[in-house]
Amino acid sequence: MMLSPQLFCMTTALTLLLVTCYAEKECIVSGKGTMATQGQQGLPLSPDIELQKMLQSLEDRILQLERVLILTKQITEYGGKLFATNGKSEDFETIFHTCKNAGGFIASPRNEGENNAILEFVKQFNTYAYMGIKEGLLPGEFLYLDNTKVSYTNWYSGEPSGRGTTTCVEMYTDGTWNDKKCNYDRLTVCEF
Predict the structure, then answer these.
(1) For 25, how many CA atoms within 13 A lie in the half-sphere containing its CB?
(2) Whole domain around residue 109: which residue ranges?
(3) Which residues pair with 149 in a beta bridge?
(4) Residues in domain C-type lectin (predicted)?
(5) What is the pLDDT of residues 54-72, one digit of tens each?
(6) What's the CA gap between 143 and 148, in Å, rounded?
(7) For the whole model, what pTM was predicted?
(8) Counted domains in the chain
(9) Spans of the chain, pLDDT less than 50
(10) Whole-angstrom Cα distance, residue 81 to residue 165?
């Protein structure tokens, strides 16, 4: 660990004082001393403290904005993920780029709670939503957009039924899924 020059000087002075007191076996200063002169101005506030204050301010602002978005029903949270919508219906490719440009991904439910979070928007806007799930090279095999196998499903009875002809997945207003062609306009829902 490297000491700053000021800290080194203070540590050295204190060490010398203690060594001298110990050697003389007397460290008690008695009587009235002389008035000290005004010392130099101390160091400015540590940059670490300034950064901590700035970070806290940003965190407070983000929490405030999240509350506003929750109030307007454009954002919901589940399991540490944020799900958001702009309320627009677009084709799959446009939704993909909209979410990517916002720093997220098309919402991809990996459990019932996440499915329900997306369902809130589907019900609110009374329209179906695409999810970040597509059919793989093998008909009937569905993958998340990162090419991992889908671990949670909520297919509508008899679905998926496209077998290679409908490669996207939409969520119905009851939360169940259907495989669908990717060129229809569906609600934009992103996850962050």
Answers:
(1) 0
(2) 73-191
(3) 143
(4) 78-191
(5) 999 989 988 888 877 777 7
(6) 5
(7) 0.69
(8) 1
(9) 1-3, 7, 9-10, 14, 16-19, 21-22, 29
(10) 31
Counting Cα atoms < 13 Å in the Cβ hemisphere of 79 gives 11
**Spatial contact of 115 and 175, defined as CB atoms under 8 Å apart:** yes
Cα(172)–Cα(24) distance, integer angstroms = 87
What CATH code is carried by the domain that includes residue 171?
Answer: 3.10.100.10
Burial 10-24 (b: 16+ CB within 10 A, else e): eeeeeeeeeeeeeee
DSSP codes, the chain: -PPPHHHHHHHHHHHHHHHHHHHHT-----S--PPPPP-PPPPPPPHHHHHHHHHHHHHHHHHHHHHHHHHTTSEEEETTEEEEEEEEEE-HHHHHHHHHHTT-EE----SHHHHHHHHHHHHHHTS-EEEEEEE-SSTT-EEETTSPBP----BPTT----TTS--EEEE-TTS-EEEE-TTS-EEEEEE-
Residue 33 lies in a domain: no
85 in a structural domain:
yes
Any bridge partners for residue 156, and if so which? none
Residue 106 lies in a domain: yes
Residues 6 or more apart whose Cβ sits within 8 Å of residue 160: 135, 140, 142, 166, 169, 177, 178, 179
